[in-house]
Design brief:
Blueprint lengths: L2 H17 L21 H11 L5 H4 L11 H7 L20 H29 L18 H5 L1
Length: about 150
């Protein structure tokens, strides 16, 4: 919309207002209302307790763990794979560090944390009697039927 078009519409609005087609006061600027934030921790904790389920570990499989130890081959090839962190736990970006290598370190941290979860979780599942391997004669149920596959 150009300036001349917006002036035309302003003039049209003023004319409509003068003719009485528009009622004054409908287009007033609404007062700014400051929103009040309520932090009622007691009620929040009560609601959390209502929603919380008391399930066995095998039902949730939640784990909090660190990183698995770095294999000697990887430590020899890449050196120290630890990400430098500040006091709050945020990763410090060094100006001399290559960002591509930094991403590799981050991905390696995800991999090592998943490894640690497996190293801790599988023995825990075995202690609870949960089978973690399929039998040798197990055939997976196919998503598509045999007749559909022959088409």
């Amino acid at each position: 919309m150009s300036d001349s078009e917006s002036l035309d519409t302003d003039e049209e609005l003023q004319e409509s207002l003068a003719k009485g087609e528009l009622k004054p006061g409908l287009y007033a600027i609404a007062p700014h209302v400051k929103k009040e934030f309520i932090n009622n921790t007691a009620v929040l904790k009560q609601k959390l307790a209502e929603m919380e389920l008391d399930l066995d570990w095998v039902e949730t499989l939640t784990m909090v763990n660190g990183l698995a130890p770095l294999t000697p081959e990887l430590s020899e090839q890449f050196g120290d794979m630890e990400l430098e962190k500040n006091r709050k736990g945020a990763v410090i970006k060094g100006s001399s560090e290559d960002p591509v290598h930094h991403d590799f370190k981050r991905e390696m941290a995800f991999y090592r944390q998943a490894q640690a979860a497996v190293l801790e979780g599988i023995p825990r599942l075995h202690q609870l009697g949960v089978v973690t391997r399929r039998p040798d004669d197990y055939f997976a149920q196919m998503a598509k039927s045999d007749t559909h596959m022959t088409k």
